Amino acid sequence: MSVDKQENSRNELLKLSILGMNCAGCVGAVEGALSGVEGVIDVSVNFADHSARVNGDVETALLIKAVQDAGFDAAVMEGLDDPEAQEVLELQRYLTLLKKAVVAAVFGIPLMVLGHFSVLPDIDALSGQWFWPFIAVMTLAVLYYSGGHFFSGAVKSLKLGQANMDTLIALGTGSAWLYSCVVIAYANDLTGLAPHAYFEASAVILAFINFGAALETKARGKTSSAIRELIGLQPRTARVIRDGIEQDIAIEDVGLGETLRVRPGEKIAVDGILVAGHSTIDEAMLTGEPMPVEKTEGSSVVAGSMNQKGSFLFKATRIGQDTALAQIINSVRTAQSSKPAIAKLADKISRVFVPLVLLISVVTFLLWLALGPDPSLAYAFVTSMTVLVIACPCALGLATPISVMVAVGRAAQMGILIRHGDALQSSGKLSCLMLDKTGTVTEGKPVVSNVIALGDHDETSILRFAASIESGSEHPLATAILSAAEQQQIKRDKTSAFEAITGHGIIAKIDKQTVYLGNQALMDLKGIKFAQYKQQIEALSAQGQTVMLLAIDNNMAGIIAVSDP
User: What is the mean pLDDT, run by run of 10 residues, along the chain of 565 residues?
Assistant: First the structure.
């Protein structure tokens, strides 16, 4: 994430990463702050991935300042962030919260267990006069380390005249500590108070809440894995040719119109047009098609796709945020942060939830104080504190956003791009769904489905010839033939004079025989007659099978069909 692009005064969609949101109630505060900036048309804040989408004619710097004035922080969310840096940051947040949970649990749970079995000294006993003040100081240290972020968040919200989850936690744990201090200080003087301290309650509550926040952070990290995988498709460097010299540079330094070289097995850095050479490129990340695409001069290539064989030069036509890969990433991010109608309803409820809980807590205190058994003050305090700490609104605010993020992210990993969360909510009403077959309702792994031997040849010899000249090839069709031969334990022959004709097929010598394997265009090119087999070829093609023709010494020998089950 970066804040380099501070000046932005065009009417467009801006994406910000929001830092410091601890609960679903913070969503309303951030949305209110951003909506108040002049020029903002629409705002959507997502608590699940801590992001904000702002549409309008406004400078980015003003948006960031508005968020900071509201007690949070913000940064511009770029289309191609460093996935490793994001993963490290999420891990650090997770470990920090987990440490805070462990510290609170290590202190609070033994204290709770010992208190349950009456092992601890009584507050009004002589030994308790030094023990409980020590516990009070230790609990204060735990509140500072494990709950400091909740208390600071509560102070921020109070300054803004708002209340959120931090308010509930700070009031609950803080009042438990304060009440306990009063009890141990005036144990022999105050009436209506049970001689019992609740220091362990403050610590255990913080342990549970921090542990839950850690799990939430980990869940958010998992939902972002699809984005990281997409970003990982983008190579970090590119090989450009400047003044006739090839040099590796950072991908951000590639300029429009520059010429780049791609070697076998390398990923393409930016979108462009092939200007010299030819190759086959795996574009499954973009199209979902498992079959590599033949590329020649004038063909377009896209960032993130994998060059399989052949070295070529291409001219950069789209870089940075304009590449097809960057647009896919932005599309997934937009969909993940979009809010279906049910999520908007949850946000509205979350905004009034905390004030309502505070009111219920006060009413609970007063009712127990007036109608509860002795010591009524102790019962009133415990019950009102319980209302505060169990009424966390995060589950309400997280359920829908996390569901949307998981669904959109999982779909992206499977090659399905969902444009908006509303599509997910509406999908239950679908009565008809149209799908592209290959790789969607099929496995995306071609296999040999038919072998037709012609003349004096048999199926075994046809597979032997085909597997022999396909040895060493990584093309999916070759892989299907080699796999079929291996399953039937067919041994391959040595080949020589190998020749690959782009877009047609391959030719090789086996035992002084010339073997041709390819499509109908190869047979036409070499003058090999196959008209009498046209009906069989068309019948196989009509079934969605890829047909390859095998010829030996200018005579048709067999037909091999490959399909995607």
Answer: 41 78 74 87 79 85 88 72 65 90 94 83 71 92 93 82 80 87 76 71 89 76 68 86 90 91 91 91 76 86 88 92 85 70 69 83 93 83 80 60 72 71 78 71 79 90 91 78 90 86 87 90 91 91 89 92 84
Q: Do 210 and 109 share a structural domain?
A: yes
Which among 69, 436, 458, 553 is annotated as catalytic?
436
CATH number, residue 41: 3.30.70.100
What is the phi/psi pair of residue 373, to 5°? Answer: -75, 165
- Do 295 and 347 lie in one domain? The reply is no
Would you say the pTM of this structure is higher than 0.70?
Answer: no
Burial 163-196, CB ≥16 within 10 A → b, else e: bbbbbbbbbbbbbbbebbbebbeebeeeeebebb
Radius of gyration of the chain measured on its C-alpha atoms: 34
CA distance 535 to 293: 27
* C-alpha dihedral sign at 6, 12, 15, 21: positive
Which position has the token pair 């004619």?
Answer: 57
Domain match, 135 and 49 both: no
What's the domain range around 35? 12-78
**Residue 436 bears catalytic tag:** yes
Cβ-contact 477, 505 below 8 angstroms: no
Residue in this structure with the two tokens 């990584």, named with its chain if needed: 474
| Domain tally, the chain | 4
213: which residues sit within 8 A by CB, 6+ positions away? 22, 97
* CATH, residue 291: 2.70.150.10
Pair (196, 314) in one structural domain:
no
Q: Provide the CATH number for the domain around residue 547.
A: 3.40.1110.10
Q: Tell whether 3 is covered by a domain.
A: no
**Of 465, 437, 470, whose CA–CA distance to 453 is shortest?**
465
548 domain-assigned: yes
